[in-house]
Amino acid sequence: MQHLLRLALLSLPLNALAGEPPAIDAATWPLHSFRFSQNALACKLPSPDIDFGCLRIGELQIGTDWAGVTARFGEPWKREALPGGGVREVHLIDRDAGQRTFSYWVLESRGGKLVNAQLTGNHPPQDPATAPGFSGLRLGDTEAKVRELLGPRFKAAPVLEISGVLWNYAPFCFSIEIVDGRVYSLRVHDGSG
After folding, report:
1. Does position 104 have pLDDT exceeding 70, yes or no?
2. Are the C-beta atoms of residues 114 and 108 closer than 8 Å to each other?
3. N or C terminus of the chain with fewer C-beta within 10 Å?
4. How high is the pLDDT of residue 183?
């Protein structure tokens, strides 16, 4: 049995949405993903008792045992200790120095659990169908696709280092960076900081 967890109602005027969003087709809505419909953001789960069920990028889900994460990714390109005993690791995925494109993971642990996962880059995946994604979004997807799946962002802030914009969906624990109208970064976290 599949469950929909309605997480919050948005208090946006309909004219801000450019019309009423369509109802979600539950048959085509994948498990473990957010969708925006009828002024609400919802998460589809196989069971209502799953913590952080939609907070995942690919197979990496927030709350996963850190030992399993490190076994999957191996040695990081960069590692740093965080205050309070946590660890941040950077793992390179793809890099083309000639074209100045790259993609990488930033992963953080605290208390033996994955608490932050960020997939960043401008290197197009070899096979977009198998590339890791968040709620149906992948690096390089259009800004329009983000709006279609997740609705309007709650806040936007410039990110000068990448000449982009951070779309924040707080209080939900995910954000998306947009550069030149395309998804440049996907981030999910446990809300602890």
Report:
1. yes
2. yes
3. N
4. 95
Tokens standing for residue 39: 């002024």
- Backbone phi and psi for residue 8, each to the nearest 5 degrees, phi listed first: -170, 155
Other CB atoms closer than 10 Å to residue 42's CB: what's the count? Answer: 19
Residues 6+ apart with CB under 8 A from 28: none
Strands 182-189 and 113-121, by their bridges, are antiparallel
pTM, 2 dp: 0.83
DSSP-derived secondary structure letter, 150: H
Strand ranges inside 97-169, DSSP E: 101-110, 113-121, 155-159, 164-168
The pLDDT of residue 119: 95
At residue 133, the 3 state secondary structure works out as coil
Give the span between the Cα atoms of 191 and 93, in whole angstroms: 26
Rounded CA separation 181/192 (Å): 29
Q: Which token pair is 135? A: 């709620």
Cα–Cα distance for residue pair 40/181, rounded to 1 Å: 24
Q: Report yes or no: 72 and 50 within 8 Å, Cβ to Cβ.
A: no
